[in-house]
Amino acid sequence: MSGSSYFANSKDFGIKKLTFNNYVSEGDALQYLHKHSATSAMHDSEKRYPPPLCHEGTREVVICRIEGWYGFEIPPEKKIMWVHAPAGYGKTAVAGTVSKKMESRTDLDFNPIGATFFFWRTSDECNSPKHFIITLAYQFTISIPELAPYIEAAVKRNPMVLNKTLEVQLTKLIVEPFKFLGELDNMPHRLVIIDGLDECINSDQQSRVEKQYAEDQERVQVRVLELIRILHSHNLPLCFLILSRPEPWIKRHVEFKSFQSITETLDLYQVGDYLSDVEKFVREKLACIAESLDPGDHEEWPRGVIQEMNTRYKYFGIHT
């Protein structure tokens, strides 16, 4: 039987969704990695513009504390810092301000920000850990250029690694490429910022049962913490700044002996004079509004507003 007779009687014949191989050619590997990254989770993503930042002159004590811990050219003794506070205390603004300030340093010959991932509850791309390792790896190819060929080679060698477990991705896309570099002791340590860990809710696997949904959130957030601990265990030139609400399961996991010994904890509620920061913000905003008024309204407008604000903020100990 000749090859041409196999489909002799076929009509309207077609092949759909056929993939012949998963080979990624030279030069396409990093583009392939970029395609699978959650780019909107990065601190300077266009989708986050304008990014939440601390008002100028506020949160200075907190930011100095974080920068002092990181150390820039001298790595900290504990390479993980967990910054926690309830909702509304400006954790994301602190993370964004730290990222911006460190990247703007001109006295260093390296970029201190290795990678960032801002979890975001309402974003399908940013509220799940499925892109977490891939996104960090992609950013490392930019912030640590000497690492790029090894990450690129890992993707070329097996493009399906992007569909493997997060633990396998961590090994193949981050740990092994770092090890291929050889001597790491003299490499500047980079800061990895993970904001909003409590907003990692694994939405693509949500359960309709409320109890199960809560358990899924706890499980996935603890899994991210474990990924960070595993990365730390390989003695890579990386430090990790984690910001989140003090959820009981996160707090409990950080307090485990294996985690506590490598983690410095910072409670935003106890660091700095946040009431003075609020007062500074309110005063400057009032001044901006006053400047926009007609000269004749200048004297009358602030008086009534200030009296009202004194009443409203008396509970917090703020006097305008």
Give keywords.
9% strand, Nephrocystin 3-like N-terminal domain-containing protein, alpha/beta, repeat, P-loop_NTPase, disordered C terminus, NPHP3-like_N
Q: Could you characterize the architecture of this molecule?
A:
This is Nephrocystin 3-like N-terminal domain-containing protein. InterPro entries: NPHP3-like_N, P-loop_NTPase. Keywords: Repeat. It holds the Pfam family NPHP3_N. Residues 76-225 form the Nephrocystin 3-like N-terminal domain. By secondary structure, the chain is of the alpha/beta class. The protein contains eleven helices and five strands. It has a five-stranded parallel β-sheet, sandwiched between helices. Helix 7 (210-233) runs parallel beside helix 8 (248-254). The chain is globular and about 70 Å long. It starts with 28 loop residues before the first helix and ends in a 7-residue tail after the last helix.
Write the layout of secondary structure elements.
Blueprint: H1 29-35, H2 60-70, E1 80-84, H3 91-103, E2 113-118, H4 132-143, H5 148-157, H6 166-180, E3 190-195, H7 210-233, E4 238-244, H8 248-254, H9 257-260, E5 263-267, H10 274-291, H11 300-313
Parallel strand pairs: 1-4, 1-5, 2-3, 3-4
Question: What is the compact description of this entry?
Answer:
The chain has 320 residues and is an alpha/beta fold.
How is the biggest beta sheet arranged? 5 strands, parallel
Percent range for helical residues? 40-55%
Mean pLDDT: 83
Number of helices: 11
Unreliable segments of 5+ consecutive residues: 1-7, 13-22, 312-320
From the alpha carbons, calculate the radius of gyration and give it in angstroms. 25 Å
N-to-C terminal Cα separation, in Å?
94 Å
Total strands: the figure is 5
The SS-based structural class is: alpha/beta
Question: How would the global form be characterised?
Answer: globular
Q: Provide the β-strand percentage band.
A: 5-15%
Q: Please write the string of helix (H) and strand (E) elements.
A: HHEHEHHHEHEHHEHH
The largest sheet has its strands arranged as: 2-3-4-1-5
